[in-house]
Amino acid sequence: MQNYDFKTYTQLFKHILNNHTNDTFLNELVDQKYQHINVTEFGDRVKYLAYALKNTGIKPNDNIAIYMSSSPNWLIVDFAIQLIGAISVPIFANISSKNLSYEINDSNIHYIFCDNNDLSAQLLENLTIIATKDSIKNSNISLDSLYKIGKDLFSNNIYDLNELINQVKEEDTFSIIYTSGSTGVPKGVELTHLNIISQLHCINEEYHLNSKDRALSLLPLAHIFERAVMSYYLSQGVSVYFVDELPNVAALMKEVKPTMMTVVPRLLEKIFNKIKTKISEKEGVSKFIAGAAFKRALKKEENTLGLLDPIYDKLVYSKFRESFGGELNILVTGGASLNKEIYNFFVNIGLNLYQGYGLTEFSPVICANNPRQHKVGTSGLAFKDVEIKLTAQNELLARGKSVMKGYKNQPELSNQTIDQEGWLHTGDLASIDKDGFVTIHSRIKELFKTSTGEYVSIVPIEQELSKSRFIDFAAVIANDKQYVTALLFVDNETYKQYKEKNHLDDFFSVDDFYNLNQVQKKIKKHISAVNKDLNKWEKIIHYKIITQTLNIENGELTPSMKICRNVIEEKYEEKINSMY
Description:
- By secondary structure, this protein is an alpha/beta fold.
- Among the domains are: 1-21 and 36-168, Rossmann fold (3-Layer(aba) Sandwich), CATH 3.40.50.980; 450-577, 2-Layer Sandwich (GMP Synthetase, Chain A, domain 3), CATH 3.30.300.30.
- The chain has 21 helices and 26 strands.
- Helix 2 crosses helix 3 (72-83) and helix 12 packs across helix 14.
């Protein structure tokens, strides 16, 4: 059995090379076919790039940006940066230009690995751009040329590889990860080697993978959730297959047949809505059976077996599992809370779904369900080495080796977030049951108080609203208002399907679709159904349908697909005011 005793990211690199020989280690789509990189090739490229970067004069603790889509190159660049003792600063591929400029200046970036042409002339003046694709304009140097330079340096033993690996210490900064959260200016979370590696040791206690496993990676590596999980995949020699574009996920799940995946709740919500729509479009006996199986999966308690369950499994649930590739052993969701009913549904159709919870400031996982200990609707038990407790106001606090070093250039905010006893204040309201399972209820900032003094927890309401196939996202408005209203953002996929099915031309717009009497009626009916289960002061009195799509680029969504309230409320201020 492999020794799992590495303490830094550079020692993790050595561990990978010493323990694994996987021929399909990293896999990237090129012209719609997967190209493979084996462990040796991965190791060589990291070494060559590290030697070339050191040769250019990059020093330990220099900050280097990675502004790339997730790919094998992303990982190679990251490991090479670590190997020379520098600090990687991941930047989301679809960031707004304002935040991009802020992050580059805040981290004092001089070198940036880039696979797109989104850098403004103003930024270009102070940056050395390393192009990771041939099509990049204004680049100073290419990744391929650095590999060639590094190969020569490596052949001539210019540097001592073991010396490079061992110069990095646990307390050194590993990465600065900017988190927008759902408010304002990005915060640069400084994580150490101890922070990230302690996470891998905790994951290794709860989940067990090996080189026979196949992981489909669809979340951005700039997100600490995917990066931590990816680091674990690499430590176990797992075959990783990258998704090129999110619309291709369904096809790639069937091609790759992953045994392991990480997702954000929004993807599961979309799959759930798709299943619901497909059932509604069936006819006759098959509609009756599928509908009954669907309702059973929603309501059934975990690990109970009814008379019809084996029939439902054979005729219905097995087909649902096939849409995930049919071989999924572990499906982990994080980044936000998953609606309990949807969570229950996926578990009952036979998917091993495990919800976890964490935040960038904790590198990121605080607690998670796992194959041995699991409770639907919760975020699981605290990881080994993690202490948790609730304040008198029920805010969840966490303490352990994974707590960040602090926010870059923001000492006051760091001291507010981590108290003198080392407790990280998460900003989330939670409960812990008698068995230690954590349930996250809402962000403190998402518990809104109406002008009549009633409290409204808006996230569960938004989750219920988004269960309609006509609604992609919902933003509930309640803070300091006399009653609750909502902005409902349309689902473009539903509109496109209707257009195709009815052979309508391009003159039939998304506005035309949402103005149809039958669509308006269905949305109204859905709002009434949601309102039925709410307290009087929580009920949605008015709503507006918004036909513009939310996106990450203009700051309306976070990279983990959560809405940014301040941006949305500012942008749609007039529409909001018109409802009062």
